[in-house]
Amino acid sequence: MKSARMPSAPEATVAPPPLDRSVFARDPNGSLSEDALQKILASPIELSLPSRVGVLPIMTAKDWRGPSPDDRVPAGVANFVGTLRRDPKFSLVTQTMVIPSGALGMEALREVAARYRLRYLLLYREVLSKKSQLGPWAWGYATIVGALFLPGQHQEVYGYIEASMFDVKTGLLMFTTRRAITATQTTNRWHNDGKLDQLASNATSKFSPDLALDVLTDLSRFAAAAEAENEHRGVTDPIVTTPTSSPSVATDSH
User: How far is Cα 58 from Cα 61, in angstroms, rounded to an integer?
Assistant: First the structure.
């Protein structure tokens, strides 16, 4: 007669809880230790919608000597916000103050959001280049009348607009959505700078609603990916909640 010890059943793996606070250092650099990095990667992904979200414009600082407020809001913000407000994923969409890019650090974003009592931020940015050169009608500038009326200037604006979703509670960036834009026009030679600025403003205002629809699409993809990863980790609690909505009708962009 023989006997042998039966193998023990594998112990159930207990998934770690989701992050309930930021593990980044409370300084402008937001340094991260190795233990904190591993904790972020091991934790399940939490997404709680509908929630309050703020659209925070990021602008290039005007003064190289330090942070300073800017005197304008990017032109595309209003239409970007208007499109997001029509979706049930957000209980509130509000604009926030403008801050200079990279001057205050990521922790400053959390402090701004806390003052508005926001769960998430969408960091909105416009990166554009402008170019003006002589066009085929420039030969008419040899005459005084031609210089006044002929459309001899070819103007072009090109670059991209982007939005990054930021989790205020954990200090983590969730995703970045970017859309390339370009716009051209021909005009006379007068007030070129003002016309270029207006061309850029019109282009970002036109295409920022498309960027908002891209954000909503990427947010749905993020939720689906989070659910799949959490299931793989053995997470049973419903820590990803997002309302279902009918897809918005996007406008054609060229």
Answer: 9
119, part of any domain: yes
Residue 35 within a domain: no
Give the H or E element holding residue 241. strand 240-241
What three-state secondary structure class fits 140? helix
Q: What is the pLDDT of residues 40-54, one digit of tens each?
A: 999 999 999 999 999
Residue 39 maps to a domain: no
Q: What percent of the chain has pLDDT over 70?
A: 74
CA atoms of 125 and 101, how far apart (whole Å): 9
Whole-angstrom Cα distance, residue 73 to residue 95? Answer: 10
Look up the domain containing 169 and give its range.
Answer: 44-126+160-180+208-241
State the total domains in the chain. Answer: 1
Q: Write the pLDDT tens digit of every residue in 73-132.
A: 889 999 999 999 999 999 999 999 887 665 567 888 888 899 999 999 999 999 999 877
CB count within 10 Å of CB 73 equals 15
SS3 content of the chain, % helix, strand, coil (to 5): 35, 25, 40
| Residue bearing the bigger pLDDT, 29 or 81 | 81
CATH of the domain at 228: 3.40.50
Rounded to two decimals, the pTM is 0.79
Q: Is residue 200 part of a domain?
A: no
Strands (E) located in 40-152: 47-48, 51-59, 90-95, 99-100, 120-134
φ/ψ region of 202 (left if φ > 0, alpha if ψ in -120 to 50, else beta) reads: alpha
* pLDDT at residue 250 in the model: 41
